[in-house]
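It is worth pausing here to work through a concrete case rather than discussing structure prediction in the abstract. The textbook approach is simple: state the sequence, then state the predicted structure, then interpret. We follow exactly that order.
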Amino acid sequence: MKLLCAPARANYPGIDFDLRVDLFSDSGFKSRGHIGSLIAERMRRAKLNPSVRAWDLLSLALAVVAADHAHHRNESPDGWTRQIDITVAVCDPAFWNAQSELLRYLLGFLTTDVWNVEFVSKGFAPAPHPSSPTSPEDCVVLISGGLDSLIGAIDLTVAGRKPLAVSHIVRGDREKQGIFASRILPKASRLIQLNHNVTVPHPETPPSQRSRSLIFLAYGVLAATTLDRYKASPPLNLFVCENGFITVNPPLTGSRVGSLSTRTTHPVVLSLFQDLLNAAGLAVQLSNPYQLQTKGEMLIGCKNQTLLDELAAMSTSCGRFKQFGYVHCGRCVPCLIRRAAFLRAGRLDKTKYKYKTLSINSAQRMRFDDVRSAKMAIEQERKVGIERWLGATLASRRIPHAPTIRDMIKRGLAELDAFLTQQQVK
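Step two, the predicted structure:
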């Protein structure tokens, strides 16, 4: 599939495409898609002036997300790997075209597809707001509404940092993101909530989510470039807080290498994205302080246990949260890891789960695919050892401290094992 992603009013005679997607706008043509139409207005209302290079980066991220939604995997020769060609309008096409090899590597690793990205002129760059306010923040933290980012934001503020919080709005999480920010952030710090609002003709159902981390990171960079601290004393920290087990997300079984093993904050993804930021002159330093910790260890180590106890049950971990009416299912892999973490930390889990009891021998409980996969992974690792079970998962030179990460994954499996044993899953 070939996509042209550009502002609605820009013309590109001679460019071949299957679908045009309007960036930061909506032409109203039903034959086109559109994405990010409200972002510029939100930034204008906040009187924020991101750098032009950050707008270009966001244009790329939006184009990738639109392509991820538009291209159906079942139409690929192998039923999974897609060939995706996108042409993206930016303000500096010469620079971005010079990054094509890095982008192919990054996007291929993130989505397991084959990408070709080209850039053309007439990109989006709004006029600066004439009265941009001063900004007291000294870093940026991503707040998703999840438990890990909640802990990360708490720990940063306890440590005396003044983060600007950035959220990607997902239905069911917007209100809690606001509550978290109001309860955690220092008085003068702010929360910026953005949404890509993607619409494409005939989208894949359910929509692919493998590229979602790119848009979240791009939001963080966009916001970072507006801060006085960024302009006065770069680089500026952008904190992406997630436990190490989910960060690596090792395939639990051989059949879960595809859609069930996403790479949202994988060390390789963050390393490649950092290379892109460095090349672009965007002085933002990515940091995941928890890449060597399990989720249970994050809960134990949180620096404000009283506030965590107040807010933890409101956080979202479930991979099927919307499907079950904005209630945790209790049986998907993220839910299993969440429940295991509460057990490891010795904390009462106040979360409401659709399937709280897993010991029942049924397709909805003990024999549910994710539950069985977790149990099989535990048994296989016990049989062959952690190194053989992981295989080539940690083989990349871009994964630092591989032996330490391997030990953390083993501890993560132990947390899962203790929880499934408590649940009497056989």
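Step three, interpretation. DSSP finds 16 helices and ten strands in the chain. The radius of gyration is 21 Å.
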